[in-house]
Amino acid sequence: MAKLVKGDKFPNFAVDSVYGTDVVKGLTMEKLVDGKPTFIWFQRYIGCPPCRLDVHLLTQAYPQFEEKGCNVLVVMQSKPEIVLRDMNGQTLPFHLICDPTESMYKELEIGSFDPENRPEMTEEEQKKMAFKIEGMKANGFEHGDYEGNEQQLPAFFALAPDMTVEVAHYARNIADMPLATEVLEKIK
Predict the structure, then answer these.
(1) What is the 3-state secondary structure (H, E, C) of 14-47?
(2) Architecture of domain 14-186
(3) What digits encode the pLDDT tens for the residues 73-102?
């Protein structure tokens, strides 16, 4: 499969997730989308401090997404038991899809960065990274277990209720991603 673009159908992957404080097996993307506008953040893994912060921020913003009739999904390369351990009893209000084999990342061609040849961050990306560093410190998010691909780039997809891709954003770096608040501002 090639990289997704606007107008493509998002694949109906079979997935396992962490939801609430439980592991949920045997789901499909179609079941998770459930006929609602859906926003999907692909991150590295739960032990990655900026990724952990994004999960925290999405958890805080989730009631606003729910009020607007939208779903939030996060995909990580973590194993469910590591997510549950690192969440330390915190309840996830959305499905955090666990893809430790990185099969979804590979199928959607979500690439990795070259540590020897990183593009410079734009001014906006630098501001987002500073915001994230401040948030990681304020919440005590330190690096946890290394899982998956340490050079994994993130991606973001906005889906229509029928799983048609409305936005396909393949990030240049970890800061080149929409924050929950930015997505909420664009929902009509």
Answers:
(1) EEEEEEECEEEEEEEHHHHHCCCCEEEEECCCCC
(2) 3-Layer(aba) Sandwich (3.40)
(3) 999 999 999 999 998 888 999 999 999 999
